Amino acid sequence: MMKQFFDLKKKHPNAVMLFRCGDFYETFSTDAILASEILGITLTRRANGKSTYVEMAGFPHHALDTYLPKLVRAGKRVAICDQLEDPKTAKGIVKRGVTELVTPGVSINEHILNNKENNFLAAIYFNKSVLGISFLDISTGEFLTAEGNADYIDKLLTNFSPKEVLFERGKKALFEERFGSKFFTYELDDWVFTEQNATEKLLKHFQIANFKGFGVDHLPNGLIASGGILQYLDITQHHNINHITTLSRIEEDKFVRLDKFTIRSLELLSSMNDGGSSLLQVLDKTTTPMGGRLLKRWVVFPLKEVESINNRLDVVEYFFKHPEFRELITTQLHLIGDLERIVSKIAVGRVSPREVVQLKVALQAIEPIKKACLKAEDKSLNRMGNQLNLCEKIRDRIDIEIENDPPLLINKGHIICSGIDKELDDLRKIAYSGKDYLLQIQKREIEATGIPSLKIAYNNVFGYYIEVRNTHKDKVPANWIRKQTLVSAERYITEELKVYEEKILGAEEKIIALETRIFEALVIDLAEYISAIQVNANQIAALDCLLSFATIAQANKYLRPIIKDNDVLSIEEGRHPVIEKELPLGEQYISNSVYLDNKTQQIMIITGPNMSGKSALLRQTALITLMGQIGSFVPAAKAEIGVVDKIFTRVGASDNISMGESTFMVEMNEAANILNNLSDRSLVLFDELGRGTSTYDGISIAWAIVEYIHNQPKNRAKTLFATHYHELNEMENSFDRIKNYNVAVKEIDNRVIFLRKLKRGGSEHSFGIHVAKMAGMPSSIVKRSDEILAQLESVNRSGSMAAEPVKTIIPTKVEEGVQLSFFQLDDPVLSQVRDEIINLSVDHLTPLEALNKLNDIKKIIKGD
Question: Are the C-beta atoms of residues 271 and 280 closer than 8 Å to each other?
């Protein structure tokens, strides 16, 4: 057996092999050590020959769904090695083989998959200047391809978040240089990524003559990547892939460009803070898993076509105006389940009886949805209704053939309804009425022998038997054969019992075999409906997303935006969709209005104190724009959105130490990416650009960037620029389309109240020291900061930024003994001691309190 294991292991050296031995899956050698650590199972050793030992760790075969996901989530490839013949009939060692290779990117196991997330496998083909990429979710059958430069491929990797990425052997360093090391990767031989291999694999799988019908014939690099994915499915023993029915192009020209920095900083899919919420979490009120997966895609792929956006908005509005329609759709969606993943299991022959019944329920639930959509006074809903296929023939067949509440596994029986197969019905009579007959035998023997406690039972050792208590064993007939002696009873068998046992047990085995055959025939016929059911899944998912938009719009008081094909972005009383949901009960979000266009107000420079809400204002503008372009109502009193084609953000940069990049370097990289990709329809958000370097470097760079964006002859990108550099307010006087705004505050009795309201004009105070005080900074530091600030402002008023830069940042030296210079700042410990003494009320201090206070000061000096 170990020789068999090592022979199979040679074929899959990089995978943990689960080796089926009877009722257990065993791991051996290094696999066992690894499995015991990841799974927390016991590691043992057994002799393997005269002088060697082999490590072992295993678990019961029925616990596979518990342990397999843990291995895959740990980033391991897992080879499942099953027994290929019945051990009872096998001669010699049981034949075994790898039946499936499960990897992070290739799995249909529902315990590994997340219901509301796609599980994409990606492949990248590196050509000289153009890269090809392909994505496949084997659990849903979605197969997509594209090609472009490294930046575009990086954007797609961020948006699709594949669980595993394939590329040519020897390209790992190149991949990590361009896309980082956060992905689980696997290298394939170079011949896999050739045009000949890819074309052969793809044409054979889809049974087509060319790729024109799929609209991907102009993507040679994308096709090579797609061929690499199909080759990988062969390698991982996934041969039943009939549910992969088409290869679609990722249509870049239809969607807004969102780079990875924007997706992260706008917190579209996940929050950057522990316990925070993302936009997706706010928008996702979907009912079906398909809807949840599609909504995630919509959020990172907003539309650019006005007509397509308005079609979605029309449906959301129809839900609003017709509550009875919304209620009907909501009710029916709860019955549908995950059509896409049920279909994938049908294709690979792993669908369970319960899932087949779920498919029937889903198809029944679609019928009222189809009728309602066809009756609706909306063209988009009518189109959805027309595309829904009731699959009545197979639906009714499932209803007739399969029990309404079958077991999960076929071998448990009671799957097929009565009246479907005469032989099955006859066998059931033998099996189940035969047990009734055993009760009749028991009653008859009690009467014949006079043994009232006699009973007939069954065990796996010698089948059916008669048990007699010792007090009555003298009444046992002579023709009974004794099989077992217990402490207080004897067990016997009779010829009559053995005959009925053979009939009953034989019937049960035949019933399982017959039910399996009927069920498998049904699954084969179901495979013919894969394409139709996939279309249903797509339409239901879209309907689910739009219903979710209507639900959150009603709950959060969103209004329909006006979508136009122009350069105006006008938001009246807009709110941040995420922050407003996280405010304490009773606290209302302060709304703000923003207006941008390419002719009069292209750039808004926004100044204001720390914590006043500048960053929230920038983000909410982008989020409202994005929500409108995915077809959602928006948190605003009114919104007119001239469709944008790119959204760029430069906010909150941090060090990228692993790549040797400082905060400022990261900041400049992101800014350069924005400036090199501007368009006339871009929306750009800059938050505190230039703060990673010295004051005058930062001001100079910020000024130059704003000037560059303003002076572009064609690509006049709409820009919000939040800054602490009040010097930038001077730009309004020199540039026509730059306007100053500030977030208002009110200062009362040396306290600052944040009004969080945007108003016209610049601001000259950041209140940073006040924020430090709010954060709990020691009072001595706050006080000293105020002193230095006063000194700096005094020098600035008398100096010149250009002529005397040193004086503007270093306080002048004053008389010794009165105040220390900038280079002789108070020792923090001495400052704390000073504060302790100043705050003492000497006249009311008792001797004991004075000693205690002296002791406290001593502890401060010693640092206790």
Answer: no
Do residues 291 and 549 touch, judged by C-beta distance below 8 A? no
Same domain, residue pair 91 and 155: no
List per-block mean pLDDT (blocks of 10 residues) for the chain, which spans 864 residues: 88 91 91 93 80 85 90 90 81 86 89 89 93 95 94 92 95 93 93 95 94 93 96 91 93 89 91 87 96 96 96 96 96 95 91 95 97 96 96 96 92 90 87 76 90 88 89 90 91 88 81 93 95 96 97 96 96 95 87 94 87 86 97 97 94 48 73 88 88 71 90 92 85 92 73 74 64 67 69 58 41 41 52 74 78 82 69
Closest CA to 523 of 243, 129, 273, 757: 243
Closest CA to 205 of 234, 165, 225, 168: 234
Name which of 343, 670, 695 is nearest 528 in CA terms: 343
Angle between helix 289-300 and 339-348 (nearest 10): 110
Domain's final residue, options 250, 282, 313: 250
Closest CA to 110 of 143, 72, 77: 72
- Asked if 715 contacts 683 with a C-beta cutoff of 8 angstroms, the reply is no
| Residue 142 resides in a domain | yes
Q: How many residues does the chain have?
A: 864
Catalogue the long-range contacts made by 267-270 (C-beta closer than 8 Å, 24 or more residues apart). 267/578, 267/619, 268/299, 268/300, 268/626, 269/296, 269/299, 269/300
Strand partners, 123: 134, 166
Rounded CA-CA distance 331/319 in Å is 14
In 3D space, the residue among 228, 226, 203 whose CA is nearest the CA of residue 147 turns out to be 226
Our measurement of the distance from residue 826's CA atom to the centroid of its chain's CA atoms, rounded to an integer in Å, reads 52
Q: Examine residue 179 and state whether it is found in any structural domain, yes or no.
A: yes
> Which domain covers residue 37, as residue numbers?
2-102
Number of domains in the chain: 4
